[in-house]
Fold this protein.
Amino acid sequence: IAQVCEQRKVPLICNIASAPQLTGQGYQYLVRNFMTGPGLVTNGLRLIGEISKAANMDLKTAVFMHSNDTFGTAQAQAMGKIFPTLNMPFKIVESIAYDPKAQDLSVEVTKVRGVNPDLLMIVTRAGDAIKLTRDMVRQKFQPKAIMSPGSPGLYDEEFFKAVGPYADGFIYNLPWFNVKSKMTQALEASFKATNPNHRFDLDGFNAGFTFEALLIAADAFKRAGASDGETLMKAIKATNIKDHVMIGGPIVFNEKGDNPNIGSASVQNIGQKPTVVYPADVAV
């Protein structure tokens, strides 16, 4: 898509995409209002360190579990490069990859139990998060904390419906919508009116970034006063939106086309509801 847009000089605003190479190939008609994969891992690990300190959790050892698909492998590679550069309070004593298509994850959970880490870090999607949770319950494995440095799955409706109260306690660090923002509150009200069978607290991540992409386009068009690709793209690159939905500073784009101001938050499932618990300025 990016190549076609580049050839035809059609601006492309990416709302959710983390592959670093997307903005690393010199595209002039592409911007990304999302965090890169390495950025997700860096922010995710930083938040794990901060929240464990704030909660007085004495974490010395960790096991990192991830799917062996493209997404999980990319996160594992980023983890391998970034973790040694951070002054984390714990050590990763083992990394375990698993097949998300496997019938269950009993073997992998047995391995983790054998190591008995203080912290289990996971990168999952909904399907394997369900299998992982069920096998941990069956084997009565309960570390001090289970956190994700940045991945979906733990806040999906499918996950909550499948494991019920066992979904509670998981913490995941991600870019998230700011519940204290007036624009977020307005978006939530509109979302509930038009999607009565869906929960904004579960869909707000996707809805929020999609809304911001539309906001960027509308704002640029209003300032440009024209719809030709060159003029519109120039306006998009000059974006500076202070009031928006997702956590972080003003929406702006650097020379690569990335928004460097996107923030992450620690979200915990409480009462089967994703709840921002850290940092304090955006926590519920």
In short: The beta strands are 12-14, 30-32, 61-67, 91-98, 119-123, 145-148, 171-174, 265-269, 274-278. The longest strand covers residues 91-98.
